[in-house]
Design brief:
It is a single chain. By secondary structure, the protein is an alpha/beta fold. Helices cover 30% and strands 23% of the residues. Strands 12-13-11-14-15-10-16 form a 7-stranded parallel sheet, sandwiched between helices. Strands 1-3-2-5-4-6 form a 6-stranded mixed sheet. Strand 20 and strand 21 form a beta hairpin. Helix 1 packs antiparallel against helix 12, helix 17 packs antiparallel against helix 19 and helix 18 packs across helix 19. It starts with 6 loop residues before the first strand and ends in a 6-residue tail after the last strand. The structure holds adenosine-5'-diphosphate (ADP) and zinc ion (2 copies).
Length: 745
């Protein structure tokens, strides 16, 4: 396996004098920010194969790395090579498929092998600690635990946990999903001898799959096509309108894979969605489900990862980074909400989990399902090119059609709290019917601007040149670009005249206004501020389960496929920025957002209604979307991209650079430009300032490369990157190359 060209070993002080045969030199990926592998002599008394984890001397200390390949030559004389100190685990931790897929990823997204290969391991294993036990943690009550429950002596979480366990043993996974914060109670009760911990293996777990609804004919057709051949690679795009029951289709295909004794990997975009969907999978499939997300403790993550590696874990559910899970017995990969941009990592190693899922499914020889109500243009182009098979669920499972979007022209009417009179009336009538309302506002905080009416001053982030958002609860001004915070001044810093006025409405201010206007119903807010705590999103959404009148205010976090059964009115306050953005993807994103948010309405038995406030009711794009629908809009957008030679009808790579001084950025980008090969297939845009030329006090610039065909662009990227690494001007800036960037910021 060829990963990186240059290989060396940068230290030569205490070299081991090597006399053995030339073929055992190990090329090792080390977690250092350099693009090469490092050559070492093998350990003395054991064999280190590719995929093995080893400890090596490095500089003055040690590093843990992964053996990538065995080779018979080195650029360094063998006399200067150092020897691997220890093989950390006898067996390779990364299997051949994962090694090959990671190598592909390093190559494609220009990662450094160290960050990618060692980053694929859970931290505990990377540190060379002993492999943890991989049993599944479960809890049960003891005899005295049953009595304590009957006596009702315990309160709150403890009582709830005793009650749960009185019904039978529960795995930690189930408790995570059903009783947030149960661990403290478990510790107390175990100490009191009321409950005890058990360790199970996957085979000793009780299996009682709960039956789902009978599939409708469209779902049946999709499942039949998906499962026609479960023994080879095939990519499917499952395009189902919101509420069409895509999950039921995934579940049926998963059940098939499990019946063949295979593993299933499912990716979801949002961390907060995992406990809920994990529980749904567990109940419906009757197997344990590993939930991988960034909130896991190191030990838990390592156990889950090892259970996946041994094939014991049957279903693995996780966010972006779960795509690095070993799947020795893979049977199916599912990527839900495949259009979601959170699948693209935006810093460090800039990979795309959906695209890597395609690579892995092919390498593993298993079917892949990409699902969405609003597929990305990338996936639609792949359908057109015959690479993916399209499966369509055209109607809602509930037989209630998705409600049409009604446009509210905000030019004509004065807005109160950013809401028109029609919208307020609609909210009032919905609440009066004891139904629930969602108000979608894509701005968190209290007000996006704080101004002085006397002199025109407004609070501006000095490090970004952008207005700072007022957060009233925290009494802070916050820059949403660099997270800088400062106190709210009591009076205008410029003219010291009277009070300052908030302008515009963020979610926090809408919440305040709607609370004042509708004091009799619960008003809940969901944005990144209110959901920072684990399980907070679920708990808030749980308050809507009773189905009684309530108002939910939220940002795009709510557009991510939540099934909120009782919402009957959705209000989209304004998305007008998306109509006039310079980003060529803005229209696609806008259409996705409108369709996804609108799709939250009327999902159960009662009909829904969607109101969209806009200053531009006649905008051709909006009219096209609302009259002809998402599929028609994307056909047109794809034609435009083809005409303008933009992705997915062309390939892009973006070189970004930033530094404290503008000249440094300019000098580096000019040198990078000069280092480009003379290639007629390449279109070069820039060097130019980034769309946000100043952020967090850094001046930012970029150079965009485009080509109609992927090959010529990708062929030149790695040599170019290596040339950039040796430029003196590169050392004075922070730079990165983003392959297939999803935004140009
Ligand atoms: P999607 O992910 O496509 O938006 P979901 O899978 O969340 O939709 O399903 C929407 C709702 O419809 C869920 O409440 C689900 O239980 C229900 N549902 C799905 N399929 C069926 C079916 N065949 N019959 C009845 N209800 C169904
Ligand atoms: Zn002033
Ligand atoms: Zn800032």
């Amino acid at each position: 396996m060829q990963v990186m060209g240059a290989a060396n070993n940068i230290h030569d002080d205490t070299a081991d004098h090597y006399t053995g045969p030339m073929h055992d030199i190990l090329r090792i990926a080390l977690p250092v920010p350099l693009p090469q592998l490092f050559d070492y002599l093998p350990p003395r008394d054991c064999q280190a194969r590719p995929g093995c984890c080893v400890r090596v001397p490095f500089g003055r200390g040690h590093q843990t790395g992964i053996v990538i390949e065995c080779s018979n030559d080195s650029m360094l004389p063998t006399g200067r090579l150092k020897r691997v100190e220890a093989l950390l685990y006898a067996e390779p931790l990364l299997d051949a498929e994962l090694m090959a897929s990671l190598a592909w990823a390093v190559n494609y997204w220009l990662g450094t092998p160290g960050e990618v290969f060692t980053g694929a391991l859970p931290a505990t294993l990377r540190n060379g600690r002993p492999l943890p036990e991989t049993g599944i943690e479960a809890w049960a009550s003891t005899a005295s635990g049953g009595t304590a429950r009957i006596a009702g002596r315990r309160r709150g979480a403890s009582q709830a946990l005793l009650q749960q366990l009185a019904q039978g043993m529960r795995t930690a996974h189930v408790l995570d999903a059903e009783l947030p914060g149960w661990r403290d109670a478990a510790r107390r009760l175990a100490k009191a001898g009321l409950i005890e911990r058990h360790t199970l293996t996957a085979t000793t777990l009780p299996r009682v799959p709960v039956a789902g609804p009978p599939l409708n004919p469209e779902q049946q057709r999709a499942v039949a096509t998906l499962t026609a051949d479960m023994h080879g690679y095939h990519a499917f795009l499952l395009e189902g309108v919101t509420g069409s029951g895509k999950t039921e289709v995934y579940l049926a295909a998963m059940a098939q894979a499990l019946a063949h004794g295979r593993q299933v990997l499912m990716l979801v975009p949002e961390i907060s969605l995992t406990p809920q969907s994990g529980q749904r999978l567990r109940e419906r499939l009757g197997v344990d489900v590993e939930v991988l997300h960034s909130g896991l403790a190191d030990g838990e993550r390592a156990r889950a990862w090892l259970r996946a590696r041994s094939g014991e874990a049957r279903v693995i559910l996780g966010t972006r980074s779960a795509i690095f899970t070993p799947l020795p017995r893979a049977g199916l990969i599912v990527v839900d909400e495949e259009h979601d941009t959170s699948y693209k990592q935006q810093d460090g190693f800039r990979y795309h989990a959906r695209d890597l899922a395609v690579v892995r499914a092919r390498a593993l020889g298993v079917p892949l399902v990409l699902g969405s109500a609003t597929p990305s243009l990338e996936s639609l182009a792949n359908v057109e090119a015959g690479r993916y098979t399209r499966l369509v669920l055209p109607t809602r499972a509930s037989a209630r059609p998705a409600p049409p979007v009604q446009v509210i022209d905000t030019r004509a009417q004065p807005l109160r709290h950013g809401l028109s009179a029609d919208v307020i009336t609609a909210i009032a009538t919905t609440l009066a019917r004891d139904e629930q309302v969602l108000v979608f506002r894509n701005r968190r905080g209290y007000a996006p601007v704080l101004t002085c009416h006397a002199c025109g001053w407004h609070a501006q982030c000095p490090r970004c040149d952008k207005p700072m958002t007022l957060h009233a609860g925290r009494q802070r001004l916050v820059c949403h670009h660099c997270d800088r915070e400062q106190r709210v001044p009591a009076a205008c810093p410029d003219c010291s005249h009277g009070p300052l006025h908030p302008q515009g409405y963020g979610t926090e201010r809408l919440e305040e206004a709607l609370r004042a206007r509708f004091p009799e119903v619960p008003v809940l807010r969901i944005d990144s501020e209110t959901t920072r705590r684990r399980n907070a999103l679920e708990q808030t959404l749980g308050r809507l389960d009773d189905g009684h009148a309530a108002i939910l205010i939220g940002t795009q976090i709510l557009a991510k496929g939540h099934d909120l059964a009782h919402l009957t009115l959705v209000v989209i306050t304004s998305l007008d920025e998306g109509l006039y953005s310079v980003d060529f993807r803005a229209s696609e994103r806008l259409a996705q957002q409108i369709v996804q948010v609108a799709g939250r309405a009327g999902r159960a038995h009662k009909p829904g209604r969607v109101l969209l406030q806009t200053h531009h009711p006649d905008h051709p794009f909006l009219c096209h979307l609302l009259t002809a629908g998402y599929a028609s809009v994307t056909t047109k957008l794809l034609d435009e991209r083809r005409l303008l030679q933009l992705p997915p009808c062309a390939s892009q790579a973006l070189l970004r650079a930033e530094a404290g001084r503008c000249e440094l950025v300019g000098a580096f980008l000019a040198a990078a430009h000069a280092a480009l090969p003379d290639n007629p297939d390449l279109r070069i845009l820039g060097p130019m300032p980034a769309p946000m030329p100043l952020r967090a006090g850094h001046h930012r610039g970029q150079l965009l490369l485009e080509s109609d065909r992927r090959k010529p662009l990708h062929g030149m990227l790695k040599p170019w990157r290596d040339r950039l690494l040796s430029l003196p001007s590169a050392r004075k800036v922070r730079w990165s190359i983003d392959v297939d960037p999803v935004d140009l910021y």
